[in-house]
Amino acid sequence: MNDPLRLGIAGLGTVGTGVVRIIRQKAALLSARAGRPVTISAVSARSRGKDRGVKLDDYAWEDDPVALAQRDDVDVFVELMGGHDGPAKDATEAAIAAGKDVVTANKALLAHHGHALALAAEDAGRVIRFEAAVAGGIPVIKALTEGLAGNDITRVMGVMNGTCNYILTRMQSAGLPYEEVFQEASDLGYLEADPQLDVGGIDAAHKLSLLAAIAFGTQVDFSAVQMEGIGAITIQDINHAADMGYRIKLLGVAQMTGRGLEQRMTPCLVPAASPLGQLEGGTNMVVLEGDNVEQIVLRGPGAGMGPTASAVMGDVMDIARGFRLPVFGQPAAGLEHAQAAGGSTPAPYYLRMSLTDKPGALAKVATVLGDAGISIARMRQYDHTGPNAPVLIVTHKAGRADLDRALEAIPRLGVVTDAPIALRIETA
Amino acid sequence: MNDPLRLGIAGLGTVGTGVVRIIRQKAALLSARAGRPVTISAVSARSRGKDRGVKLDDYAWEDDPVALAQRDDVDVFVELMGGHDGPAKDATEAAIAAGKDVVTANKALLAHHGHALALAAEDAGRVIRFEAAVAGGIPVIKALTEGLAGNDITRVMGVMNGTCNYILTRMQSAGLPYEEVFQEASDLGYLEADPQLDVGGIDAAHKLSLLAAIAFGTQVDFSAVQMEGIGAITIQDINHAADMGYRIKLLGVAQMTGRGLEQRMTPCLVPAASPLGQLEGGTNMVVLEGDNVEQIVLRGPGAGMGPTASAVMGDVMDIARGFRLPVFGQPAAGLEHAQAAGGSTPAPYYLRMSLTDKPGALAKVATVLGDAGISIARMRQYDHTGPNAPVLIVTHKAGRADLDRALEAIPRLGVVTDAPIALRIETA
């Protein structure tokens, strides 16, 4: 066990630089913990000249990540480039073909090509590990795949995009509209080059699809995630939800139902006093529920150099220690494609609408809801400010199809000014 | 990899029965996840005839756990008997000597004999795993040893005795005195046969000493834990702390300081809005801090059949999957005995005293504190109810030695009725 484990690192952005730094600074500690040294043979990045604040001349340089992945002196290909196609995919495939293990932080790559990559890796007797791809520094893949291996997982939930949670909690704390906080986040460099990856829920949905595959023993199926971003959430929604005892989160939920696998990444209300409700700023939280363990909640930084590099190193150390596991916890060849659940399990909903000042307006709305089989748990009407009165309704558990019927009918009543807003309430 | 992993289970209380149940109910799932079947060869318990609601006649029965541990058809000895000496220790030693791996939920055994057992196991090329010994269903040993293996751990904190947290939060929510809630907990069966294990902080201190050994790469040293139970906490303290924005928790803290390893299990104040402050009832929470990962918070059930059996099964599955690791994350032969830090790192403190109704009383107290170098951050004096007035003081960061000097001097002033109460404030 005293041969070093030799890495080839492709991508020297924040995370790659963080990994190099840890390996340089903690050589003795890592070696004591792994029972063998962990070394870097070669690195690769787009620009060779750039000063990254860390010494790189001890390592061979490759301009081409594919060439890096194929080097004889590399045992583990560490893919920190990102992107679900192009060089990251090419180099990962090349690494597997060349008989290397892979550690990656690339959620997009695995969400799109995870099953095919897992099949290839397992055919070649190699592992792909991706703790850093989900919820940054939180060892959630490990907890789910290994720690909870004695459970049938019943539900996985989480706030897994720190930027969205920053925007939503900052809107509330500063009383600012979405557009303004979005601009702030952009100025602070919190947003991806394509902001839809964040605020459209795509990045978080990538992560959810990976957790769902492990949790339910199915092929990763990103395309089946019901996805809705936070762009339509107003400061009024946030304040009204708070008045009713809730917070709004971009919440991912995956659960196996009688109708198939339900995967949702949508804005939801959660109780203000719940762990999810109390989550502020860019922090991530994942809730794992199993038939034996009941509920485990994991909370930590979802991004940043240190936390993400910590997750990459967890995977590297596992490989150094000889831990070998199928990519998604069970052999990929045996994973089935889960039928996607149409719709979503019944839940309480929060409805907001703006009533015109006409007698009987509220009664009409209530009648339509009742006719659709939706019963009202709580209702709050605010003072008219101008000609309209905001009305908030919390329903009892309702099916989404019934709700949609009512939501379609309400505007035709002539007593609301805009289409009603409906947000699911997810309870822990 | 298709040979079954064969268990011998000693102890068929709640947890042992839970483990048997999982292995019977989930044979196919466990086999798919581990790549091999997990089976039970033999079991052992004090009473053979007792109906445990689970079928046992498929397994050989041993009256003597030592004989169980030595059986040829046992690969892993699962020790769920408890007790830090006697049969649990004898059988664990016998298992190691017979070349078996060990999975145990026994925190007392490992807190007292963990280093010697680890040396013996590693000499024999065997592993001892103990996820279930710390914080029930939360995979915290795994997170710390494996997930955060790329970090220097800076601090480990936690609420790790659900009974104490139940008592403290129930006192607050119901406004009841300690004695009454202690009796309730006793009636509900929440307390160990020797309640000092719970309310004296011993059980939680066992757990802390195990986490500290892993976190700081030192020999487990339970005897060095500074320990104080919750028996002296009054409903007044809880209410006053709440007034100042805090909750009282039996909090374990381990950190490496310039003076050596500090291990404390004592009642502390934590901010009411922090994750620790918000922890209600019997739930456990562990906070792991590392130089790269910053802070990870893990929350989950600290006891019970399902959660504890889940943790045992996580260990069993790791062994079935071929994961092998030194008992405390690094070879025991290389672990040093950490010098115990005398005293504790400076911190803000909460002080409560009862002032007599004399002019200048408060000034005298403030002067003594000032003379000891302790500055006051916040102070609150309540109305006199009777002849005395409760006074609460939150200090700025103070050394415990300075504080103790002041606490000794204050009663000699003749202006307080009882010895002042001082509780450390631990901030996240």
From TrEMBL, chains A, B:
Residue ranges the record marks as coiled coil: none
Residue intervals of the ACT domain: 350-424
UniProt keyword annotations, A-Z: Amino-acid biosynthesis, Methionine biosynthesis, NADP, Oxidoreductase, Threonine biosynthesis
Residue sites binding NADP(+) per the record: A10, G11, L12, G13, T14, V15, G16, T17
Pathway it works in: Amino-acid biosynthesis; L-threonine biosynthesis; L-threonine from L-aspartate: step 3/5; Amino-acid biosynthesis; L-methionine biosynthesis via de novo pathway; L-homoserine from L-aspartate: step 3/3
Binding site for NADPH: K107
UniProt keyword Manganese present: no
Catalytic residue list: K207
Gene3D superfamilies listed in its UniProt record: 3.30.70.260, Dihydrodipicolinate Reductase, domain 2, NAD(P)-binding Rossmann-like Domain
Positions of L-homoserine binding: E192
EC number: 1.1.1.3
Gene Ontology biological process terms in this record: methionine biosynthetic process; threonine biosynthetic process
Listed transmembrane segments: none
GO molecular function, one term: homoserine dehydrogenase activity
Family: Belongs to the homoserine dehydrogenase family.
Protein's UniProt name: Homoserine dehydrogenase
Origin species: Pelagivirga sediminicola
